[in-house]
Amino acid sequence: MRLKNILIVVKDIEKSKQFYHDLFGLELVLDNDGNMILTEGLVLQDEKIWKDFLGKEIIPQNNSCELYFEERNIEAFVEKLEKLYPSVNYANRLMTHSWGQKVVRFYDPDGNLIEVGTPA
């Protein structure tokens, strides 16, 4: 068995598709009416579909998981993030851990937590 995809719930699927394309270069693989599969296995699902299926409310910024990306030139990434999405909500701005890895954590437009770090 293997993990196939990671699914996140979004309010505006087109806006989220653009966000993940702008920042991470993810491309559309399949658009299935409220479900979009992007490269790297990220799936965007329309909030209405998820709520109907699950029968529960969505809790944005629940801080229970994160999407993790690696970037060698993290300073350039942070500049791009601030230029394209100046009102982004940070969990923590660019910092350096005691072991030397640089990371930044922020939320996508729907409150999904993202971490971008330099390769460890």
From TrEMBL:
Q: Which domain of life is it from?
A: Bacteria
Q: Which SUPFAM superfamilies match?
A: Glyoxalase/Bleomycin resistance protein/Dihydroxybiphenyl dioxygenase (SSF54593)
What is the originating organism of this protein? Blautia caecimuris
Gene3D superfamilies from the UniProt entry:
2,3-Dihydroxybiphenyl 1,2-Dioxygenase, domain 1
Q: Which Pfam families match?
A: Glyoxalase_2
Q: Which residues form the VOC domain?
A: 2-119
Instruction: Identify this protein by name.
Output: Catechol 2,3-dioxygenase-like lactoylglutathione lyase family enzyme
